[in-house]
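Please produce the structure of this protein holding flavin-adenine dinucleotide.
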Amino acid sequence: MVELEAAIVGAGPAGLAAALYLKRAGISFVLLDKMGPGGKLNNIHEIANMPGFLPISGLKLANELYASVKEAGVDFSYGEVVRISRGGRGFIVETDVETYSVYGVVVATGFVYEAVVKGEKELRGQGISYCATCDGPIYRGKETLVYGEGNRAEEEADYLSGICPKVYFVSKSRSLSLKKPNVVPVLDSEIVAFEKRDGLVVAHIKGPEGEREIGASACFPLYGERSALTFLSGLEVKEERGYLLVDERMKTSVDGLFAAGDIVKKGLRQVVTALSDGAVAATSLASYVRGKRKNG
Ligand SMILES: Cc1cc2nc3c(=O)[nH]c(=O)nc-3n(C[C@H](O)[C@H](O)[C@H](O)COP(=O)(O)OP(=O)(O)OC[C@H]3O[C@@H](n4cnc5c(N)ncnc54)[C@H](O)[C@@H]3O)c2cc1C
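Below is the modeled complex.
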């Protein structure tokens, strides 16, 4: 078992920012990821909304972020975290290659999308997207479709309704709180397949009145969103639909456990907010660790 002061789980933008701040605060820690550093950025064609950068390829931004962290003296370690439990110095962090005993942890594991509709996976990046705030402007002036339910889906539809003439809101739910003249509800319905036809993504929909097709320039299917949190099941940490609840210092309901980035319950999931969360979480964790040092 390796004894350190802290662990960061996830080396996406949030984890990388946390690593930079922890390093500069003089804390000993490990930065873990089950893939490479950069997180989701590695698979995104172009990142917009990133102050200081013109639109930039996700891979390039991931490299830039990692370079600045490396320059500060941080190395990333491969490891899939399979469990975090109480014990040792405070927490035992188990990965598929090593076990760490640490005072505190920053969880920055984001969330993932599983393709749940036939054809969804094949059309990713060709009209299927999961982030209206990010990709919506590409479809300005075009008809779009959101498939989901609840706050998150309604927020995506609301955003699109400001830039698209018509937004279809297809949902398994029977209600929609969002009332906008250009948001067309298609409720109590399920999308069974997507296909690309004549430059549009065509959604095959089963609803109370039988089957129908809707074509849109872009579809945002959100039913496959899953938070990457299974390894925390041993701790009684407060969450909502997989998103961790944190206070203004990015502290979760468990002492010594902080969270940052897309895994946190919040209104805007972007690179800038992930970076900010990481900085705040690391600063809070550094202060927590200093308290532990003092008290032995
Ligand atoms: C299609 C798309 C386009 C986007 N476009 C933009 C854009 O233009 N502008 C913008 O600002 N934002 C954009 N975003 C959002 C942005 O990518 C995210 O907000 C950001 O990546 C969140 O960073 P994060 O560090 O919280 O999580 P992630 O980037 O998801 O990183 C999480 C990391 O945790 C690791 N991990 C997960 N589980 C484990 C485990 N058990 N053990 C070890 N490691 C683990 C993963 O491998 C991953 O590397 C886009 C998102 C999508 C999906």
